[in-house]
Design a protein that fits this description.
Layout: H1 2-16, H2 29-76, H3 80-90, H4 94-109, H5 113-126, H6 133-146, H7 150-163, H8 170-183, H9 187-200, H10 205-220, H11 229-244
Helix pairs in contact: 2-3, 2-4, 3-4, 4-5, 5-6, 6-7, 6-8, 7-8, 8-9, 8-10, 9-10
């Protein structure tokens, strides 16, 4: 019984063995054996790699097309609504973040300071477009100043003015630093900063005029005093008493 089984297995193996081509050179026999043993698996692997490569190329083509669309819409967007639409559609791309930067400035110009700060923060978190880091930093500082978050604004203005003297936004940062110092009641320190800036910008009439205007504002600035309701009521009572008191006629 076992001999019959062994014979049948050997016969099956013999049927599966394909004859070597008659004209095959001897030096190609190892390659032929490898091909017969691993050729089908190799073709399957090559097919898989090829499919992956096709998928990558298709994705790159799609992404480039999407980026091109985003850039076109970004250049055409002018209003706040249009910028919001670009950010909503392409916010995860570089052009989308550039649109987010412009949208933050649009919010600031419209006095929507909370929205501006949130948008600036999103822009920072998603990666500021290369070359626009200074604009976002100073824009965010202006927004914090507008929201009366003076300590945060002061930190940014001070750091920027001390470490970025070659930046075209350096004067803006130093004047922002002076403004916030004034709001904190440090007018003399603010004036000293403006004197330094004036000395650095003596060859620029535009900046000289801008600095002079800010100096006048600082000179006139007086902190708003908080008065209690009692003081206001007392003052109002005195005014009413003065109005109601009859004036005696002049003596003859």
């Amino acid at each position: 019984m076992s001999e019959n089984t062994t014979d049948s297995v050997d016969a099956g193996k013999a049927e599966n063995i394909q004859p070597i081509p008659e004209n095959l050179p001897e030096e190609l026999l190892p390659l032929y054996d490898w091909w017969k043993a691993k050729g089908p698996q190799f073709l399957s692997t090559v097919g898989t790699v090829l499919l992956i490569a096709i998928g990558v190329v298709a994705f790159i083509h799609y992404r480039n097309g999407k980026l091109a669309e985003a850039n076109i819409e970004l250049t055409q967007a002018n209003s706040m609504d249009e910028l919001e639409e670009v950010v909503a559609k392409y916010g995860s791309t570089k052009p989308g973040n550039a649109a987010r930067m412009r949208l933050a400035k649009a919010y600031y110009d419209a006095s929507k300071y909370e929205e501006a700060l949130e948008t600036y923060d999103d822009c920072v978190n998603k990666g500021i477009p290369t070359g626009f880091e200074d604009l976002v930093t100073i824009g965010r500082a202006h927004t914090l100043e507008a929201l009366e978050k003076n300590d945060e604004a002061l930190t940014i203005f001070k750091s920027f003015s001390e470490n970025n003297k070659e930046s075209f936004l350096y004067p803006q940062a130093k004047m922002g630093f002076a403004r916030v110092l004034t709001l904190q009641g440090k007018k003399e320190e603010a004036k000293n900063l403006l004197e330094e800036l004036k000395a650095e910008k003596t060859d620029d009439p535009v900046w000289e005029m801008t600095i002079a205007n800010l100096e006048e504002v600082i000179d006139r600035y007086e902190p708003r005093t908080k008065r209690s309701l009692f003081d206001m009521a007392n003052e109002a009572g005195k005014k009413a008493e003065a109005v109601s008191t009859p004036v005696a006629p002049p003596a003859k």
